[in-house]
């Protein structure tokens, strides 16, 4: 049986030399539960990447962001689905967000990224964006 394909977008939000990293909830498969990721979510059939990213950040963080240019796309095959992950350079007017769908958040420099246990797709994305 062919694996389900998911089209996901994420926000790379920077403040100075630090980037916003969010920790997934304790649900879903063990290989992604409680792992770290850049915030974002699935693109629905009726929306483009920009609309999806703004909607996901609003739903999960009650936060309005500006979605800028596309930084890169990676594809990763998990045991039960294939993920296409596209990252966008994003800006926020303030840091007044709420964690409605995450356990935790941290602002880290790229040198500090290895201190977190990332999802496999986000690990690949980090390698692609910060070679």
Features:
131 residues, alpha+beta, 7-stranded mixed beta sheet
Folded structure, characterized:
By secondary structure, the protein is of the alpha+beta class. Helices cover 18% and strands 40% of the residues. A hairpin with a 3-residue loop joins strand 5 and strand 6. The chain is globular. It starts with a strand and ends with a helix.
Write a short abstract of this structure:
This protein is α+β, with helices and mostly antiparallel strands and 131 residues long. Helices cover 18% and strands 40% of the residues.
In which range does the helix fraction lie?
Answer: 10-25%
Q: Which sheet architecture does the biggest sheet show?
A: 7 strands, mixed
Distance between the termini: 35 Å
Overall number of strands: 7
Can you tell me the residue ranges where pLDDT is under 50 for at least 5 consecutive residues? none
| Average of pLDDT | 96
> What class, by secondary structure content?
alpha+beta
Roughly how many Å is the radius of gyration? 14 Å
Order of helices and strands: EEEEHEEEH
What is the topological layout?
Layout: E1 4-15, E2 18-23, E3 36-37, E4 40-42, H1 49-61, E5 65-77, E6 81-92, E7 104-108, H2 120-129
Parallel strand pairs: 1-6
Antiparallel strand pairs: 1-2, 1-4, 2-3, 2-7, 5-6
């Amino acid at each position: 049986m062919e694996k389900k394909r998911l089209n996901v977008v994420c926000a790379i939000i920077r403040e100075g030399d630090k980037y916003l990293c969010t920790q997934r909830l304790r649900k879903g498969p063990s290989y992604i539960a409680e792992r770290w990721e850049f915030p974002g979510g699935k693109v629905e059939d009726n929306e483009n990447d920009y609309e999806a990213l703004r909607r996901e950040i609003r739903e999960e963080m009650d936060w309005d962001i500006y979605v800028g240019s596309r930084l890169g796309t990676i594809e990763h095959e998990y045991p039960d689905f294939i993920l296409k992950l596209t990252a966008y350079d994003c800006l926020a007017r303030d840091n007044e967000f709420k964690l409605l769908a995450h356990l935790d958040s941290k602002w880290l420099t790229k040198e500090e990224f290895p201190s977190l246990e990332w999802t496999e797709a986000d690990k690949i994305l980090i390698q692609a964006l910060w070679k």
